[in-house]
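notes to self, project folder thing:

trying the whole complex as one job this time. last attempt i did each chain seperately and stitching them together was a nightmare. two parts in total, labels are on each line so i dont mix them up again. if this works i'll redo the older ones the same way
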Amino acid sequence: MYRALARFMNKSLRAWVLLCLAGCVYTVNVQAQHPNLVITSEDVRAMREAVTQSGGFAEAFQELVSQVEGLMSQPIQVPTPQDGGGGYSHERHKKNYQLMYNAAVLYQLTENTAYAKFVADMLLQYAAMYPDLPLHPKRKMNFQNPGKLYWQSLNEAMWLVYTIQAYDMIAASLEPADKASIIQKLLRPMALFLSEGQPSTFDKVHNHGTWATAAVGMTGYVLGEAEWVEKALYGLDKSGKSGFLKQLDELFSPQGYYNEGPYYQRFALLPFITFAQAINNNQPHRDIFKHRDEVLLKAIDTTIQLSYNGLFFPINDAIKSKGIETIELVHGVTLAYSLTGDTGYLDIAQKQGQIVLTGAGLKVAQALEANSATHYQFKSVAFGDGADGKQGALVVMRNADANHPGANNGSAVLFKPAAQGLGHGHFDKLTWQFYHKGAEIVSDYGAARFLNVEAKYGGRYLPENTSYAKQTVAHNTLVVDETSHFNGELAKANRHHPTLELFATNHSGSVVSAQIDSAYAGVNLERTMALLEITGQANPLVLDIFNVSSDSPRQLDLPVHYLGQLISSNFKRHANTTQLSPLGNANGYQHLWLKAQGKPYKGLAKVTLLNDNGSFYTLSTLTKGDEQFLFTQIGANDPDFNLRNEQAVIRRVEGAKQHTFVSVFEPHGDYNPSKEYTLNASSQLSAIEYETRGDLLLVQLVLNGTSYLIAIDKLKRAEGVETAFKFKNQSYSLSGPLAVYLMTNDLE
Amino acid sequence: MYRALARFMNKSLRAWVLLCLAGCVYTVNVQAQHPNLVITSEDVRAMREAVTQSGGFAEAFQELVSQVEGLMSQPIQVPTPQDGGGGYSHERHKKNYQLMYNAAVLYQLTENTAYAKFVADMLLQYAAMYPDLPLHPKRKMNFQNPGKLYWQSLNEAMWLVYTIQAYDMIAASLEPADKASIIQKLLRPMALFLSEGQPSTFDKVHNHGTWATAAVGMTGYVLGEAEWVEKALYGLDKSGKSGFLKQLDELFSPQGYYNEGPYYQRFALLPFITFAQAINNNQPHRDIFKHRDEVLLKAIDTTIQLSYNGLFFPINDAIKSKGIETIELVHGVTLAYSLTGDTGYLDIAQKQGQIVLTGAGLKVAQALEANSATHYQFKSVAFGDGADGKQGALVVMRNADANHPGANNGSAVLFKPAAQGLGHGHFDKLTWQFYHKGAEIVSDYGAARFLNVEAKYGGRYLPENTSYAKQTVAHNTLVVDETSHFNGELAKANRHHPTLELFATNHSGSVVSAQIDSAYAGVNLERTMALLEITGQANPLVLDIFNVSSDSPRQLDLPVHYLGQLISSNFKRHANTTQLSPLGNANGYQHLWLKAQGKPYKGLAKVTLLNDNGSFYTLSTLTKGDEQFLFTQIGANDPDFNLRNEQAVIRRVEGAKQHTFVSVFEPHGDYNPSKEYTLNASSQLSAIEYETRGDLLLVQLVLNGTSYLIAIDKLKRAEGVETAFKFKNQSYSLSGPLAVYLMTNDLE
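result (full assembly):
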């Protein structure tokens, strides 16, 4: 520990000496050089040069100048804290830290003291107010640790993360008395308040803890408080059982997956990458970016991988319009490129179209101008969940065409045998989604929320987020007896997770299998899905085999929520044309209008949709005549029109102890009313046969008159190990977990 | 007549002589040179050169080569006619004429005789079949004149329009015997069949007649049958009471508006511009493009003007995805540029992104490569309807930002005091639509049809097109006693039209007023709308004053159909949360689920929406407490899920002899969940006052605390003529029909 501290001091002094050699006249400050958090004095030299030239970096700079000048022309407002989220004082204090940060950046880039003075003036107003502030009047003690500027300390930590950087950038310009006042009345008390003042948050291995440790640790670097840095890294007791490093070890899986899902992963990323850069600049010997086999880089990359056509897969509580253009991921991609030099990240940076005014941002801007971008490769991956990566997984399967961000025609399956993901998790074990030609087709509702729209429940999560969006029936997975997984109980859900039994990718496509026996007492759910690339087929097919076994007869519902218009079904539907009623009373069913139902005979039951992307999609289900098809629309029991009125088809089996739902989801055709042609509006699939032989699943598909045999070996035999079997009097040899064979004999 | 013929022969011979001087060894053909319809031999010389160089024209050529080569590699199929629209023989014969046309173009461009031989072979197969063909077995004698290749003669005329051009381009390559066979067995009999064989269509002043006259006239030019040309131009009796020139005189208004609306205008355009080019090339003295003050050019330009963000305003039976990229308008814009040299058309051509392989197409390609495009100017226009331009009008009002095709942030109001527009017209006198930030906000359902989707009623107009889409309640205009305008009777509707009372545009915006007393017996409907540009307001506002007076008490419904999510209303809504029923029994009402209703107190009733474009919209209605607000969703009595489930709010007054609906539609704010900000989610409008003084309408609006007075003078005083009036103790001077004043005294 002392060695580390010695090194830190050593490096700090060395850098300061270098800085002074470069011509500065700072008063001696043994605690720290300035700036040296995310932006370093070395960065600043290059950045000052870049803003005088043309290019993306200079443009971003000019944009910031005009934005900040506009805001600086208004009087400084540092209101007494009184409002909750969305209210005036809350929003004002948020804007203030952004403005201080931006003005401080401009001070570094332009050396115009007006920027520094503006930041100093605002800091002094905060310093005048802060010491006497009580806990925030809108605090909610049972839910969140309170702040003083804000109702929750999370916002206070965010305030300090930005403000300490602003301070770091203008510190050298401050009069000694002002500096002392800002340090003593504002920065020190706030850092202490956020650490010793709230051990339960500071020592929590949770995203809120990350903001607190980042704020306190960065303040430690700037004020030369090595002890604060140690506490930030290892917890208040410095044992390493909590703190930033523990958060890095626990909050991400070894592959860099954050178990609340990509929407929150993106949000969680920012304090990690901000503090990590500060650590790297102040204590490079820690090799923080190498920590845990480069987990932070993996976390950035995983966030990108968990997107389709620029938007994150909207699992759990997610606002669906969030994607790779979010500012957190702009910072992440900027860092990833500057650390790795991997030109694939420039592809993403190009799509983001935003340049960050940091040293790393300058590298990105220059590389983009040199046309160095190469295709970023999207992959098929099972992202292990949990700190050990073994608590289930979040699985993405993509076809070859979907491997780079420009390829909006590709197909992607998102399959979720993942852990619950804490309070923002949905009760949707083994759910899936399907994407094709740039669009979400088999859909996830995401969160029921209009972010920041006051008229919609204050912009918070709507009541329907709990009553509908989190419920199992709102997802594309199995509901037993109209109740949600784990009976909708979070504590129970957090204790259990599915088991990933198989995941493999080869030239025939990708396959995944997972099961869970804890979602319902006495019921085992096992789902095998494959994204099949069949030679000669224009689009990959999704094969879905959902096997349910129960200790007693149950009602089994398996929904497919879709975005599009119902075109047809090959069985009779009885529509409720003059009166609609909800499908059920609780657990999300109360929000579904039952629009029609049908009970197809034995054989292949087909439902065809048309999406606005111009493609048709047919869900073909192999039925024995025991499956009812219910056609629903969201919107019942929604007095405030809070829900989107989307459609679903639900397959229902009643009183079953065992049932296997076997289906194929098939994209086909092209609807082009502008050019007046419609191609292949009908499904090409005319038959499915299905059988199991121990761990071997065999599925025969007849497509356009040609038979294909799909073999899936759940024993996970390695590629190259041959398994021989016979099917319909023909011999096959299977090598690996997935194969597609062209059958030379036809259906009998 | 004889002089014209003499000139025609003369020109024809002269051109032929020139052609032979250029080195050809044709047998003497006194009837015509080849080619000389849309593509001339002079065009061909330049085109042959262009395809050897790089550029858009050469790219379009290469694309066509690969497409045609692919199709030519398959055996020629000329099936016996047996199927109706969408069936095999129907689609095959359609593909055949396109293929013959394209192969013939390639023959001209490459002089590769394989293309000519392919066309000749196919023509000979048609020639072998045609003489013995009976009328088509799927003919519907009561509806359409039948063809022989197709169920309706319309398709046969289209076949000949393309095929005569293909023949014209390969004729020089034919063996005399083959040529004689094609002329005698195919071209002559078909031209006679389409003219003398079906006088009722040939002499009809209707789009179907245009295709017939174009086919016959063009065949006349090629075969040297001057008589056929005369009949095509002046009708079978050559009196001029029918024929192509009469069609030009009657089917368009003086401003070039086609009264079925832009969707059908685009479709109707093609035979006009095709035949006109043939006329111009063969009989330039006719000055066909100058005919009726250049009505054909005006028709092309009007079609462009009737679009927003690339899509046509979807009034009447319209497929909503049709727009400026349709092939008909590609030909139209190509012609318009080549005739006028107006570089604004290149702006549109650029958006279309398609190059036509004609002489005119080459000019466009070359001009685009020279970067000659300038902004095409979209305007605010009242397009007079009917042959005299006095049967009402279709009105477009745009704000300044919406004046060019790149400006997707602009606002546009479409207002429809137009005539019925024949069989494809909707019963929607005085309806309106609103567009903003690239999106349709106040919406028109368009046609209920899935074009060419066999599973949806054979791809034809759905039954719901009549039962819903055409009905008045499906539009944004007034419904009396739950019945449609003219009681939904087409013959009656065709006899009447609204009167355009006022249309004006100045720096304060645009204003329009129209009325009709024939939509309902004993009821007068009068609507005044303005798109107001108020200094300091981010967006224009739409003012809507709908005055209804009746000879007896009636129920008055005024719907606003919208695309978006309901955010809030400032009055209590009683929602039907557990059971939905249709709003009515007939005239479209049977398709509307009643989701909620409310009856606001006296004052300003507000309903706020959020569109996917990220903007909020508030409808503020000045009520006396006598208006009910009904919230509906389309989808009742729709057993086949044929309708889109869109929303509306309907203002209802019961038992009224007179009522004025006064409202403002206000775009505001910005919802950006990706960047996590929401601005101005609330309407800025806090009060409306309204009064009339004879022809003067006075409306006071309070926006963000500032009062504005809107004055509309329906007397249509010219700009510059001053009218003095007082309002709230202040004097005003009105010059022109519309003014917006900043009020210095506030609301009392």
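what i see at first glance: The mean pLDDT of chain A is 92.
need to look closer tmrw
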